From TrEMBL:
The keyword tRNA processing does not apply. SMART domains: HATPase_c, HisKA. This is histidine kinase. GO terms for molecular function: ATP binding. It comes from the Bacteria. Keywords: ATP-binding, Kinase, Membrane, Nucleotide-binding, Phosphoprotein, Transferase, Transmembrane, Transmembrane helix. Its EC number is 2.7.13.3. It comes from Nannocystis punicea. Residues 243-465 form the Histidine kinase domain. Pfam families: HATPase_c, HisKA. The keyword Phosphoprotein applies. The chain crosses the membrane at residues 35-56, 68-85, 92-110, 116-132, 139-157, 177-195. PROSITE patterns: HIS_KIN (PS50109).
Length: 478
């Protein structure tokens, strides 16, 4: 586990990271090298700046000028390293550049202070270390070879030629060696410490990422368990509703049958008041039976146990059949109900009974929410990429739907007005059932509405049943 860093270390790392490309900070190793390049560059700059008074005090004449020029040139060229790091977005070029600046500075110092009599040539040993830390292992190998070649060149120049100048007084070697040795020790220690800080922070980030990953795994596992429980609960709910709906239909059908018989008896005996009450019982029982049928169908759809048939029929004839059946409701509400279809017949091969159920729901809703207006059922055919579709659009001039409620109305047991004092009764199952049935038949359903100006519900179905149909009766397959 990584040690906790002191605040100054975190601030130092944040300062060195400022301005670095995000690509260098995403990978831990690249980030460590980038921090070392930044730190080395500023240490070299600091060392060159501190060397200026030492050079001024220990040299004179041409030696002072050339030494100061070399020192300040190394300082300026080293600053190119951080620029390369940001420009290229990689540590290789910047690491090699800064290593080259350090190498050139050390070679110059050695060559002008007596070659192997110089107290500075041992600094060449630091160069491969810097290269390996900043640019990678292969860079360390390369600069080791370059340093060995440089030592060989210095040896040859020192023993076989007289080209190496002597700018520094050997009497000052003790002072300058102490100063440069202390600076080198501090620089190497600082870089090592910086590398450890970068490593510790990388470990800390990796541990934090590991903890977050563990938490994410736990959340995923918890979500998976909850999903399984939800699926089990939904299956149990669907099974329960299907069973209860089926069991409720039997006694309710008996109630309707006996009530209709009592209506006939009351008419025969002239009991008109009783007959009116019995008619209300029959109507309420049939309404309740319709609600139970919707619940049963919705449960079957959710449980994927609803079979679809294949029937060949004319779409406009089905629309007219639905409108004729609902004409009494239209007259009760003072509405005009009509069908608009093209002259040519539109043939569909779908589940006629389920499509009739969808249209009855949509047209019934349009009539319920429209008073003294118009409800029109549009029927048309469409062809898209050689695929044929039949489209039913139920248009009304009723109260319309608010913009925020367009999607909610297709959710089970959802109504636009769910207050206890709502004006329009209903369970909110009709549109949810329509949506499920349409999608089972491979189609889509949508609504376009303006509040206060009416709505248009559009059902778009393939004219031919999709391959996943399982006909309930093979003899009606088309």
């Amino acid at each position: 586990m990584a040690e906790r860093q002191p605040p100054w270390a975190s601030r130092l790392i944040a300062l060195l990271e400022r301005g670095l490309p995000p690509s260098l900070l995403e990978d831990h190793e690249m980030r460590r090298r980038a921090l070392l390049i930044e730190g080395t560059a500023w240490l070299v700059v600091l060392a060159c700046a501190l060397t200026v008074p030492v050079i001024a005090a220990t040299t004179q004449g041409l030696g002072r000028v050339t030494s100061l020029a070399a020192d300040l040139g190394t300082l300026a060229l080293t600053l190119v390293g951080p620029w390369l790091l940001r420009r290229r977005g990689t540590s290789a070029a910047a690491g090699h550049w800064i290593t080259g600046c350090v190498f050139a500075g050390v070679v110059y110092a050695v060559s002008t202070t007596g070659a192997f009599a110089s107290p500075y040539w041992i600094l060449l040993a630091v160069v491969p270390f810097l290269a390996a830390q900043m640019a990678g292992r292969s860079a360390g190998h390369l600069w080791s070879a370059i340093c060995l070649l440089g030592i060989g060149s210095l040896f040859a120049a020192d023993h076989f030629t007289d080209v190496l100048p002597q700018f520094h007084d050997p009497a000052n070697y003790a002072t300058t060696t102490a100063i440069y040795g202390a600076m080198t020790i501090l620089a190497v220690h600082g870089l090592s410490h910086l590398a450890d800080l970068a490593k510790d922070e990388a470990i800390a980030r990796a541990e934090a990422a590991s903890v977050q990953l563990e938490h994410a795994d736990l959340e995923i596992e918890r979500a998976r368990i909850l999903a399984q429980q939800a699926v089990a609960a939904s299956s149990a709910k669907s099974a329960f509703m299907a069973t209860m709906s089926h069991e409720l239909r039997t006694p309710l059908n008996a109630v309707i049958g006996y009530a209709e018989m009592l209506v006939e008896d009351a008419e025969a005996e002239g009991l008109h008041d009783m007959r009116d009450d019995l008619v209300k019982i029959v109507g309420a029982s049939q309404h309740l039976l319709g609600l139970i049928d919707d619940v049963l169908d919705l449960s079957r759809v959710e449980a994927a146990k609803l079979d679809l048939r294949r029937d060949r029929f004319a779409a406009e004839e089905l629309a007219r059949e639905v409108t004729e059946a609902l004409q009494p409701l239209a007259r009760t509400r003072g509405n005009q109900l009509e069908v608009r279809a093209p002259p040519a017949s539109i043939v569909a091969c779908l589940d006629r009974g389920r499509l009739r159920q969808i249209l009855i729901n949509l047209v019934g809703n349009a009539l319920k929410f429209t008073a003294r207006g118009r409800v029109t059922v549009h029927v048309r055919g469409e062809t898209v990429d050689l695929a044929h579709f039949v489209v039913f659009a139920v248009e009304d001039t009723g109260i319309g739907i608010r913009d925020g409620d367009h999607r909610r109305i297709f959710e089970p047991f959802t109504q636009v007005d769910s207050s206890p004092r709502r004006r329009y009764e209903g369970t909110g199952l009709g549109l949810a059932l329509c949506k499920n049935l349409v999608e089972m038949m491979g189609g889509t359903i949508g609504v376009r509405s303006q509040f206060g100006h009416g709505s248009v519900f559009t059902v778009r179905l393939p004219a031919e049943a999709p391959g996943r149909y399982e006909p309930a009766a093979p003899d009606v397959a088309c």
